[in-house]
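Appendix B, Record 12. Input sequence as logged:
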Amino acid sequence: MQSIIPSSKESVADRAYREIRELAMMYKLRPGTPLNEVELANRLNVSRTPLREALNRLSSEGFFTFEARRGFRSRTFEVKELVDLYELRSELEVFATKLAIERASDDSIAEIEAFCRNEGSKRFTADIMEQLDVDELFHERLAALSGNGEVVRMLKNINGRIRFARWVDMDGRLQQTDSEHLQIIEAIRQRDEEGCRQLVAGHISRRVDQIREVIKEGFARIFIEENQA
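Logged structural output:
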């Protein structure tokens, strides 16, 4: 990753946070291994103080673990953690759509439908990471229909922590995913709370065996990329 000169609105610590978060989300920092802070500081062209500030922030958000005298460590693929996060994401988005049914205007619903149709048509020629970017943005915009900013903030954090799993999970499911998005929008338009709850839960939920398979494939992709580098 190339270092980016921070804008007047972005501090060095904020830039470090953003770039390290991206590395963590895509498991470019190998899971379960200690972080070499000197190497990472040189990689990002930052001093140790803003680097440590960024790492502490990311640790509090669940991207890293920290032990006294041992420092920071990249998080590993854990079945229980991913199952917990998928369950939380499902309940959070069900709650968000419940609020959206109560609060969202017809115009705002029409806007997210237009976004879904326009961006969805482009995704078939996009690479998997661009597809994932659009998918995450859709779900964040859907959550924003709730009118609750904390819901959106929490969803962004969860999406970051399960991003690699979702990348693997999404592969080959693009057409089904877009179809389900439109069904969820229609249920919100119809103010169908129970129908929307079922659609969202079914769209997001993953069984333990599915999570295990995602983790297995995720590890395989990491090692393939490392061997090709």
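The chain has a mean pLDDT of 84.
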